[in-house]
Amino acid sequence: MSEEKLSFQAEVxxxxxxxxxxxxxxxxxxxxxxxxxxxxxxxxxRYAALTQPELIADDPDFKIELSLSKxxxxxxxxxxxxxxxxxxxxxxxxxxARSGTAAFMDQLDGKQDGTNLIGxxxxxxxxxxxxxxxxxVASRKAGEDQGWAWISDGRxxxxxxxxxxxxxxxxxxxxxxxxxxxxxxxxxxLRGIVKTxxxxxxxxxxxxxxxxxxxxLNTASxxxxxxxxxxxxxxxxxxxxxxxxxxxxxxxxxxxxxxxxIEYTGxxxxxxxxxxxxxxxxxxxxxxxxxxxxxxTDDCAELIPPYLRFLRGVIDTEDLPLNIxxxxxxxxxxxxxxxxGVAKRVVSELTxxxxxxxxxxxxxxxxxxxxxKEGIYEDDGQRDALLKLARFRSTVAEGTTTLADYIGRxxxxxxxxxxxxxxxxxxxxxxxxxxxxxxxxxxxLLFSDPVDEFWITSVPNFEGKSFKSVTxxxxxxxxxxxxxxxxxxxxxxxxxxxTNVDSLIxxxxxALKDEVKDVRASERLTESAVCLVADExxxxxxxxxxxxxxxxxxxxxxxxxxxxxxxxxxxxLAKRIGKDGVGxxxxxAAGLLLDQARILEGESLPDPVAFARRLSTLVEKGLA
Length: 624
Ligand code: ADP
Ligand code: MG
Description:
Elements: E1 3-7, H1 10-21, H2 29-51, E2 64-69, E3 74-79, H3 86-94, H4 99-108, H5 115-121, E4 132-140, E5 147-152, E6 157-163, E7 170-177, H6 187-198, E8 205-209, E9 215-216, H7 233-244, E10 252-258, E11 264-270, E12 286-291, E13 294-297, E14 312-317, H8 333-356, H9 358-372, H10 374-378, H11 383-389, E15 393-394, H12 403-408, E16 416-421, H13 425-428, H14 435-439, E17 445-447, H15 450-458, E18 461-462, E19 465-469, H16 486-494, H17 498-511, E20 516-521, E21 530-533, H18 541-549, E22 559-563, H19 568-580, H20 584-600, H21 608-623
Parallel strand pairs: 2-8, 12-14, 16-17, 16-19, 20-22
Antiparallel strand pairs: 1-6, 2-3, 3-7, 4-5, 4-7, 5-6, 8-9, 10-11, 11-14, 12-13, 15-17, 18-19, 21-22
Bound molecules: adenosine-5'-diphosphate and magnesium ion.
């Protein structure tokens, strides 16, 4: 019989080395991992058999068997699931493919000790090496004749070859327990572990010891079909760990049964922490679809809307045909109904949670708010509810605010909900465009998630109040009740300079006519001399930036340059124009005003050389 020696992928060797030497105290989880794999293997075969019933014809009852040979300290875990052929064994047990283990390796980089990470990420099959000094796998893939054996002591290499000793169908994993891991050859101990971690597995798990009769270890009914009162928190959590490949405590769980037009049961979880790839374009939701307790797929995009892609768990429906193919799932009207029903339920659950425990909701929002906001423009049905849920930072609120609370704080005469957007809330808080709003005590929302730019274009208003960007169009500040009375006097004072300021503006407009759309006296500036805004109806400055970054846009809209008539620099320039008429100096000054506005906007200067020349000429003259 031909046998071959192959090397583990370098990452696997490194992982195995860590696993074998780790002092991780919770070694019992190896059994959970192996049982979970066995159960996945049965699920996959059950699904394949929907279209190829012959695959399971001679052995239709799925099962997982543990058997113990106490004196030899050998524990085997067998399943009659899908099994693995030679390629499967090399690929699945010789390389790191699954994302959880890959994430574990990423986190490990630069760290000496992976002990805590083992608990956090789990290491799947390889966790067997925490308790064994040798593992052999014998497997026969459903529908194939040849059986295969895989053996390794976990030190760099494994052997693979044909065998006559594989199960008729499925996989048998034989663990040679390490001398110091004798506890796992105690049947009582094993029963306890299975009860703790694997009771929810809907396939019967049995244990036999040497020649004693096998005993059943688990309840073997799908956990979501049981009534809530019969399920403990621990059991829910273990199930979550199993379906989500997660190791934290879920932040929230929802166990429900929808009845009526369509019937389905859901057991859904929201993780307590943000998965590392939440914004990865390939990121899928983690909800498995079952039809009448039979696993169909964990890859059905239509089941859950993308803005709820952080959900984990299962949906089990009575109403789809069992032999539904993955292709038939696309554009399926029943699935659309389920998706909308699930979305409604989850959003209303979140709303309840937000009302009951705002602080806990705030942590959830920090992790998942940016994703949830995608629903504002993707899901008409939930738009209003999501807008009510949404939290924003603002120039006034401590922490975050809801839109309703914002409206409660609006000033006399204020008609719109003002916002400013940019990459970083702390940064945009210092924007010159906010000065006039701050002076009048008008609150402005700080939009710092890229998604804000997109939903805002599809939502004209909230509870009758329109949204208005403070970097676009006129500021309308005149209509809003003045906070301090001295404002009016100030305005009168500056009146005598107005004609000069008008000439300055006319001049700057002419000098910059190729670069800006318009030049205007500003209502929104109090401290800074200049700022850039987008004209009413033009694309907002930050949105343009985002689209350019993503190469969705290659032209720039011309901006409006606003000039603060009260700023001392502007006043001085205006005086100069009144006295001397127009010269080169003023031409340079006009260019510098625009450059200054661009710098304040965080933009790069289109012509830094010209900027440097203008600046040095003017400084030189000033010094002379
Ligand atoms: P995961 O279960 O997250 O994919 P594991 O390390 O636990 O990662 O397992 C790696 C892969 O090995 C599985 O995805 C599966 O393809 C294969 N595998 C492991 N155990 C079995 C089994 N009992 N039957 C069939 N395939 C298995
Ligand atoms: Mg696994």
